[in-house]
Design a protein that fits this description.
membrane; 22% strand; alpha/beta; binds adenosine-5'-triphosphate; single chain; 12 helices; 8-stranded mixed sheet; 341 residues; globular; 5-stranded antiparallel sheet; ABC_transporter-like_ATP-bd
Length: 341
Amino acid sequence: MSEPLLEVEDLTIQYRTSEGPLTAVSGVSFTVDEGEYFGLVGESGCGKSTIVNAMIGGLDDNGEVVSGTIKYRGEEIQDFTEAQWNKTIRWKEISQIPQGSMNSLDPLKRIDEHALELADVHTDMTKKEALERFKELFETVGLKPERVKEYPHQFSGGMQQRAIIALALFLNPSLIIADEPTTALDVIMQDQIFKYIDRVQEEYEMSMLLITHDISLVFESCDSMGVMHGGQLAESGDVYDVFNTPRHPYAILLQEAFPDVRDPKRELGTIKGSPPQHLGEVAECTFVDRCPWAVEECRQRAPTLEAVDTAGEHRAACFRWNEVHELYEGPVETTPGGESP
Ligand SMILES: Nc1ncnc2c1ncn2[C@@H]1O[C@H](COP(=O)(O)OP(=O)(O)OP(=O)(O)O)[C@@H](O)[C@H]1O
């Protein structure tokens, strides 16, 4: 089998805080292959952005990879220096469509100047060649090529986000990270942006890492996925498997909380409480306080991600993974503390 493009292995990331080290990501492992569309899903605060930031050398100053590795094409990158990130990874290999386009374009620069700057720093393209390429990409994302000369404020939010997608594609990276790419856009625009992202992924056959809190989006677009809770990966595998036979209670309840094409009229569930924050080591299941099926063992130690199919590709971190399907009898409303009402 060929080497994965990206391999995250047993990754733990902490932030220094006045109360001690906060473990934002704990023992997370997943891979993204060439051309694969991977979705990382979970509520706010689960550690999704922390992982992504570590992948492009963008962790906040008080954040640190304390153990584990991030390999890109087989090379460990988690401890790269700023110069190494700039020279070998950012834009050329991994580029990002960030959460709020409004903040990522310099309001004082024309849109094409952003692209020309990238070309100047990272390539030997002439100005004319760079402009031609950027105009072509503008067309790919449904923008008129002549509009490259405009300033960000002349674009609507949706148009700015499409301009960002064109910029992310500009140096022909192998992996694009789309981190909640449609936050702050209206529903119709969200739909349109996702159509462009899906199209780009198919046309350019690049790998894509989608970060979102919306599990139905992942089911719609991605090939494989990881479900995160409280800094840990609760479940991962092929989208088809997680959709049809979720094995972690959080994956089941998260599915309940979003509309389902199989049953559009069903009532949406809620998961009360919020993902925990961990000071120090994570010593129990991160979902224990919200889980309707938690048992004593779940408090005694943290379950590790285990294979739940014979191929070993579908994995869940739950002591009761082979029972949850029987325990689950339709929508459950959990209360903090884990009891069903
Ligand atoms: N610089 C920081 N210092 C201290 N704690 C932080 C810092 N950045 C993030 N955190 C904490 O780390 C945890 C993970 O945050 P992260 O932003 O990675 O989650 P997320 O799933 O991406 O959420 P969102 O979708 O809201 O961005 C949270 O508890 C958050 O409060």
